Structure formats: structure tokens, C-alpha cells
């Protein structure tokens, strides 16, 4: 449902969205009027020139639509840098690959921390789908870390040749297009997008394929309590492809995945009968994915149980799973905050508030989680001394 009080997009933004809607309507004609939601989400977020992550929307930070952990505090990146340093040292050098570089803040804070630890990688590659974000990241890093920016390279997709090192993906899996379903007494339907007689995009349903039906049945059987009569949720099929890509290029090393999500038993709980889809526009959250396609972010929470299963199938070792608060506390975030006690009272207050947002349960502390994987790696895995919740998966 769209809340009634979303800010109005500008005329230029509305014009961009209309072009994307026209593209979707054109494609609907070739699809007998039904577009699977997974394809709709792909176009809304990544259609060349018009998708949310590809067009010029501000996206990250206070002037954008949402704030991610690395935007809040450089201490997030400094904590992750300790795992980077441990992995690079174990491997006798290596590379860092970051998926979806955001504004460039995570790369800047990790590289700065690694320079202090004298543990810089051979290269730091950002896999960035958006040419516009790539330009923004380059400009930011040139100003923030001029002495290190030459180590950063940008890629359009996963590296072509195998390498050793560490992969970092913060809030990437929740941006992968998902399949939507409804399980009802009458059967399972796939939810998707159609267009009404006035040319307006609407949600539509069609009977599920055998494969989707089986996938839904497996989740329903594993749920801790019976689902209500009409139960809507999502399945992320693309995370398997994403991990298969990782398996091909990461010969040795560690993968650090951070995202909003739940173990399967919580994800597919009977209480969560409307699914986890959320849309972000200028810091307002709502659940209507059809509102001005291309102008808002669309995310679905991560099923960490399915993600860990897919990782095992892709021959990774699943090393640890923890809520963000436990992970960052294990990596000494509060000690790092104390060490930054210089600066003005205002600056200290801002840093403390940012760390509170990273750690407090009602903010990011328990909703965001870390899953750490490894392949052909016997070195230290950090971040799980406070707790390792692998048993929850
Ligand atoms: C919510 S943003 C997170 C950005 C950044 N990691 C941060 O934490 O600020 C999601 C990002 O995932 C990126 N993304 C989605 N699928 C991707 C893929 N297959 N390869 C690389 N980036 C991807 C999007 O382009 C977008 O920049």
C-alpha cells in the first residue's frame, strides 16, 4: 500500500518514470499481459538509462532515499577492514572485490583503515552496474583518499579470471529481483504485473509453475506455524546465480555478506503474511512497488537459510552468522569509537549517534545480519566472538 503522504516527485522525475512505464507496457504486449514480478523489479531497478540504480537519482545518504551502514559511520568499514587485513595476510596478499559501491564511502573507510594497518590489497575492485554511481564513487574517492584512489578499479561484472582475496557485499542480495507468490486454499499463484484499461500498472496473479509450487510447499512445510488462508511472500532465486558467479572467480578467500533479513523460520513465519517487500523514496518506507517505477528503491529481505544453503551448493564453507550489533561489537566498534574521542563535542555526538544506529535493535542492530563464507581458506574468521548464530539457519 502506498502511504498517502509521500513527497511529490519533480516533473522531470515523473517524465523519466513514464518512459520506463511505456517500456514495461511494450514488453507486456509480448508477454500476453503478465510480467513476472522478478522481471518487473529488474526493469524498475536496473533498466538501462531509467532503472532506479542506473538513472541519476541521489539514492544514498540524507539527501537521497535511504541510508546504508557505511554511509552512517566510517567505523563500519574500519571494522570490516580487520577481516580484510587478516585474510590478505593469510593469503600473502590478494584482492578486495566490493559489489555495488554506493557512494564510495565503504571503499574509502576500508582502504584508509588498511593503509594504517599496512595491509593494503593488490587491488580494490568495485563491481558497479551504474555508470552514474561509478562516476560519483570516483569523484568521492579522489577527494577523500587521493593517495589510494589509483588502487581502485571499476568492473561491470564479476572478474573474468580467478583470484584470491575477500569479497564484500553490503545490501546487495536484498536488491536482487525476487519472485512473488500467494499461497491460498485454492492453490499457489505467482504474482506479477499487468496493465489495466487506463494504461495503469496493476498487480496480477497467474497459477504458479510446478517448480514454484514445489518451492513454496517446501517453505510452507518448514514454517513453524500454519500459514493463514492467504499468505504472500517472496523467493530470491537469483542469489543462487550470484553465488555461482562468486564460485567461479573466488579461488581462495572470504566472502562477507551483510543485509537485512531473517533465518527461514522467521522469514516464512505465519505472522509475516504480507511478505517483506519494501520501497524507499526520500526516507519514506511503503509497500507499493508499482509507485513511479524507476524513482524508488525496491527491496526484499534476505532468507539467510536459503542463502547459506546456496553457498554450500556453490562449495563455500559457511563460517558464521550474526546480527550486525554482535558482529560489529566483536570487531571492536565501541573501542574504535572511544579511540575517536577527539574533535568537537558536536562531532563526537554525531559519531556516537551513528554507532547507536548501527547497534540498537530498533535501528540496524538486529535487523541487519552478517553471513561470512570462505573457500579454500584456513585463516582467521573474525566478528563472531560475541556470538555465532549459525544454529538459527
Ligand atoms: C542498497 S544499494 C547498497 C549500496 C552499497 N553497498 C551500500 O551499502 O551503500 C544496492 C546496490 O546493489 C547493487 N547491485 C545489485 N545487483 C548487483 C550485481 N549483480 N552486481 C553488482 N552490484 C549489484 C545495486 O546497483 C546497488 O548499488
Structural features, described:
With 393 residues, the chain is α/β, with parallel strands linked by helices. It has a domain of 187 residues: 3-Layer(aba) Sandwich (Rossmann fold). The strands form 3 sheets. Strands 2, 3, 4, 5, 10, 14, 15 and 16 form an 8-stranded mixed β-sheet that branches. Strands 1, 6, 7, 8 and 9 form a 5-stranded antiparallel β-sheet that branches. β6 and β7 form a beta hairpin. The mean pLDDT is 94. Bound molecules: S-adenosylmethionine. S-adenosylmethionine binds next to α3.
Which small-molecule ligands are present, each listed once? S-adenosylmethionine
Determine the mean pLDDT: 94
Structural class: alpha/beta
Oligomer: single chain
Round the Cα radius of gyration to an integer and report it. 21 Å
Described by the principal axes of the CA atoms, the overall outline is: globular
CATH class of the domain at 75-93 and 102-163 and 247-267 and 308-392: Alpha Beta
Percent of residues in helices comes to 25-40%
Which CATH architecture of the domain at 75-93 and 102-163 and 247-267 and 308-392 is right?
3-Layer(aba) Sandwich
Q: Summarize the helix and strand pattern as letters.
A: HEHHHEHEHEEEEEHEHEHEEEEHEHHHHE
Give the distance, in angstroms, between the N- and C-terminal Cα atoms.
Answer: 31 Å
Amino acid at each position: 500500500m502506498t502511504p498517502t503522504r509521500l513527497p511529490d516527485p519533480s516533473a522531470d522525475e515523473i517524465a523519466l518514470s513514464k518512459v520506463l512505464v511505456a517500456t514495461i507496457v511494450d514488453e507486456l504486449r509480448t508477454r500476453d499481459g503478465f510480467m513476472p514480478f522478478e522481471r518487473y523489479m529488474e526493469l524498475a531497478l536496473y533498466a538501462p538509462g531509467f532503472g532506479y540504480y542506473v538513472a541519476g537519482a541521489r539514492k544514498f545518504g540524507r539527501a537521497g532515499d535511504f541510508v546504508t551502514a557505511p554511509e552512517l559511520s566510517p567505523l563500519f568499514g574500519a571494522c570490516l577492514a580487520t577481516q580484510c587485513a587478516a585474510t590478505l595476510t593469510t593469503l600473502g596478499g590478494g584482492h578486495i572485490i566490493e559489489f555495488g559501491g554506493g557512494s564510495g564511502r565503504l571503499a574509502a573507510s576500508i582502504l584508509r583503515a588498511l593503509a594504517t594497518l599496512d595491509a593494503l590489497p593488490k587491488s580494490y575492485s568495485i563491481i558497479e552496474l551504474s555508470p552514474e554511481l561509478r562516476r560519483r564513487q570516483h569523484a568521492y574517492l579522489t577527494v577523500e583518499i587521493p593517495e589510494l584512489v589509483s588502487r581502485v578499479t571499476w568492473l561491470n561484472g564479476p572478474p573474468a579470471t580467478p583470484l584470491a582475496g575477500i569479497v564484500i557485499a553490503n545490501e546487495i542480495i536484498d536488491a536482487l529481483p525476487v519472485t512473488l507468490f500467494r499461497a491460498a486454499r485454492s492453490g499457489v499463484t505467482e504474482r506479477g504485473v499487468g496493465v489495466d484499461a487506463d494504461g495503469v500498472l496493476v498487480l496480477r496473479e497467474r497459477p504458479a509453475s510446478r517448480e514454484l509450487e514445489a518451492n513454496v510447499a517446501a517453505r510452507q512445510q518448514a514454517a513453524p506455524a500454519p500459514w493463514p488462508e492467504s499468505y504472500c511472500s517472496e523467493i530470491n532465486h537469483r542469489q543462487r546465480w550470484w553465488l555461482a558467479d562468486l564460485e567461479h572467480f573466488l579461488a581462495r578467500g572470504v566472502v562477507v555478506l551483510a543485509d537485512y533479513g531473517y533465518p527461514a523460520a522467521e522469514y516464512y513465519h505465519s505472522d509475516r503474511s504480507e511478505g517483506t517487500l519494501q520501497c524507499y523514496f526520500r526516507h519514506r518506507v511503503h509497500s507499493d512497488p508499482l509507485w513511479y517505477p524507476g524513482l524508488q528503491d525496491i527491496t526484499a529481505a534476505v532468507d539467510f537459510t536459503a542463502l547459506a544453503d546456496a553457498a554450500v551448493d556453490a562449495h563455500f564453507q559457511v563460517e558464521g552468522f550474526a546480527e550486525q550489533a554482535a558482529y560489529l561489537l566483536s570487531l571492536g566498534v565501541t573501542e574504535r569509537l572511544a579511540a575517536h574521542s577527539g574533535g568537537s563535542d558536536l562531532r563526537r555526538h554525531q559519531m556516537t549517534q551513528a554507532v547507536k544506529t548501527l547497534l540498537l535493535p530498533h535501528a540496524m542492530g538486529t535487523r541487519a545480519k552478517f553471513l561470512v563464507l570462505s573457500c579454500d581458506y584456513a585463516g582467521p574468521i573474525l566478528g563472531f566472538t560475541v556470538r555465532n548464530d549459525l544454529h538459527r539457519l
